[in-house]
Amino acid sequence: QVQHLTLMSMELHARTRRDLEPDPEFDPICALFYCISSDTTIIDTDGTQLTGTIVVSRE
């Protein structure tokens, strides 16, 4: 049975300073990883799952 349910999972990777916890004021985000899952076919794909990565260049 289709419930038209879509889930998104996301994980951020931040470059931290030494052994400190990430602080958004000082530590930049370097990458974002995501996964979108649906119980129906996702538009513009052939399946029910879409994964990807966004990487920020340090220039």
Explain this structure.
The chain has one domain (6-55). The chain contains no helices and three strands. It has a three-stranded antiparallel β-sheet with strand order 1-2-3, with no helix packed on it. The protein starts with 5 loop residues before the first strand and ends with a strand. It is mainly β. 0% of the residues lie in helices and 44% in strands. It is elongated. It has strands spanning 6-14, 29-38, 49-55. InterPro entries: PolZ_Rev3, RNaseH_sf. GO terms for molecular function: DNA-directed DNA polymerase activity; nucleic acid binding. This is (spotted green pufferfish) hypothetical protein.
Question: Keywords, please?
Answer:
59 residues, mainly beta, 3-stranded antiparallel beta sheet
Number of helices: 0
Share of residues in strands: 35-45%
Number of domains: 1
Distance from N terminus to C terminus (CA atoms, Å) equals: 49 Å
Structural class: mainly beta
Strand order of the largest sheet: 1-2-3
Protein name: (spotted green pufferfish) hypothetical protein
GO molecular function: DNA-directed DNA polymerase activity; nucleic acid binding
Organism: Tetraodon nigroviridis
GO biological process, one term: error-prone translesion synthesis
